[in-house]
Amino acid sequence: MIGILRQWLAGLPAYLWGGWGAIASLLLLLAGWEFASQWLDPLALPDPRTVLATLHGLLTDGNAWSELGITGRRALTGFALSLGIGSALGMLAGLSMTASMMARPWVTVLVGTPPIGWLVLAMLWFGASDGTPVFTVFVACFPPIFIGAMQGVRTLDGQLREMAQAFALPPLQRLFDLYLPHVLSYLFPAWITALGVSWKVVVMAELLATADGVGAALAVTRSQLDTAGTLAWIVAVVGALLAVEYLLLEPVKREVERWRTLA
Amino acid sequence: MLNRLLAAPLMLCAFRPLFLLAAGAAVLGMAAWLGFLLLGWPLPGVPGGPVVWHAHELLFGFTFAAIAGFVLTAVPEFVDGPAAPRPAVLALVLLWLGGRVAWSASGVIGPWPAAVLNVAPVLVVIALVAPLLWRDPARRHLSILWALLAWLAVTAGFYTDVLRGEPPMRSLHAAIGVVMVLVVIVMSRISMRVVNSALDTLGETAVSYLARPPRRHLAVACIVLFTLADVLAPGAPVAGWLALAAAAALFNLQGDWHLGRVLLRRWVLMLYAVYVAMALGYALIGVAVLTDLGSVSGGRHLLAIGALGLSIFVVMNIAGRIHTGRELDTRRWIPIAAGVLLLAAVARAAWSWWPADGTLLWLAGGGWGLAFGAFIAHYLPLYWRPRPDGGLGCEGVMDSD
């Protein structure tokens, strides 16, 4: 365990240094934005520095942190529920061919129902409480996680399983060395996709259903025709997502998927 | 007379006269500039004034001579082609010298002679290497040709502005960008050999160095975009973001080099320092354009002294030595001179904040002059004499090849 940790820490500086490439391409994006803003009305597209200054103002007067906190709590609650229930049910469905066959149309129904439809249902069921955004996030995140878990289990190498049986591997070792690494390599990308979905959906749900959170703040900037404020909130949400994905999930994902390059 | 001149050891290979002229132009050009700034010496009156004279001489004089010497030596080696014929090299040298005189006299005789004599040598170099680069079956080094054509464009652009009576500084700024691209391209070739042989020396077999093309292409793209923005809309925020993107892309490029203690080997560390100076230079420009911190001029001089000056110094010490049939110089003066050059870059950048402090300028100009003066002192005796191994041209150390 300590060995893995040390290895992970040793690779960390190189990983973080690799972030410069991402920073370079984001800065190119900002240059493109700046270029476009020169040709458009500031009301349609303010330049990036104005937006960043607005965001800086929101962050220093403390407003942004509380709104981001509220939004983050809702997104992560919905995401965590999806992660737990979706992964468990997906893996269970993957264990049996019949269950997988039966579950597929259900997932298609879930994917096919637009999130906005779920949102309206949630508003009817939960009103203006936290339940509305949390439920919408849960439903939107569920299908990719469920499918990931199901496919992870379905694609387990049957020969490896037989070999584990032949060598009479203890069940715990079988779980940690055989099943989990394989299933996780399917689950992790699904979780990351779902995390992105959760952030997008929670803001949409808040915009229509709640009085606080980033979505509600966006509703206010929209009504005031405050494009700079709107973009500032968007930058805040995207920035938070990038930070979580690249600083937390991506390093873990690399660690989990390392066996693929070794194999 | 002419035949004796062509047969002289100094003409054995193109880099011999050109590297010496480059170092000479570096020392003399900087001495005249320091004299003008600090001692009130007069400078030749030229279109655009003293700053344009300074930038022109260090870019189209010093830098071009070094680039010409390098490509005429390296390209035949890269593509396994014949070296440039000596009469052509002699013509190039004479044109280059004429260009120096004509530019400094352009206040008196007009800009046309300077235009012809500064553009012509670029054409000669392109005419000499383009067929080799093009005929190479894999065309792996065509990017060098594009960079030379870009250099031709900035030289011609400069004189177009001068002849039309417009401020010509933007072409000189663009010239720095072209050199940065060329440095990134050339260093990717040189570093593969330098870093991997340093790894061999250390006995490290577990890692090997690879100059990864995607990282290099991203850095080149960012530098090109910044250079274009800097020419078309100098000082605009777009240029600022692009400068920051170039800085980040160059930091990204440094990731290739993080292979442990091999980074501390002298040739590796000096080449790495070129990228550090380049990244910091672009960062300083970007910050200066977008905020009221930073300094555009300070950033440009980090590029010009720290990246351009140091890379030329290092490359002249590598290519300019092994192609005389000698192993690399292991003496201490080289890392010391490189350190002095970096110090000069920092001092010149700092001068942008404290323009009243003449000491910083002395440090900057003096450090530059010392480094290239030391090059002349160490290499003139080598270039003046025939090769010790009996070689008759540009080939590298004979027994190792």
UniProtKB/TrEMBL annotation, chain B:
<feature type="transmembrane region" description="Helical">
    <location>
        <begin position="302"/>
        <end position="320"/>
    </location>
</feature>
<keyword id="KW-1133">Transmembrane helix</keyword>
<feature type="transmembrane region" description="Helical">
    <location>
        <begin position="360"/>
        <end position="380"/>
    </location>
</feature>
<dbReference type="InterPro" id="IPR010266">
    <property type="entry name" value="NnrS"/>
</dbReference>
<feature type="transmembrane region" description="Helical">
    <location>
        <begin position="112"/>
        <end position="134"/>
    </location>
</feature>
<feature type="transmembrane region" description="Helical">
    <location>
        <begin position="238"/>
        <end position="255"/>
    </location>
</feature>
<feature type="transmembrane region" description="Helical">
    <location>
        <begin position="87"/>
        <end position="106"/>
    </location>
</feature>
<keyword id="KW-0472">Membrane</keyword>
<feature type="transmembrane region" description="Helical">
    <location>
        <begin position="172"/>
        <end position="195"/>
    </location>
</feature>
<dbReference type="Pfam" id="PF05940">
    <property type="entry name" value="NnrS"/>
</dbReference>
<feature type="transmembrane region" description="Helical">
    <location>
        <begin position="216"/>
        <end position="232"/>
    </location>
</feature>
<protein>
    <submittedName>
        <fullName>NnrS family protein</fullName>
    </submittedName>
</protein>
<feature type="transmembrane region" description="Helical">
    <location>
        <begin position="332"/>
        <end position="354"/>
    </location>
</feature>
<feature type="transmembrane region" description="Helical">
    <location>
        <begin position="267"/>
        <end position="290"/>
    </location>
</feature>
<feature type="transmembrane region" description="Helical">
    <location>
        <begin position="141"/>
        <end position="160"/>
    </location>
</feature>
<keyword id="KW-0812">Transmembrane</keyword>
<feature type="transmembrane region" description="Helical">
    <location>
        <begin position="55"/>
        <end position="75"/>
    </location>
</feature>
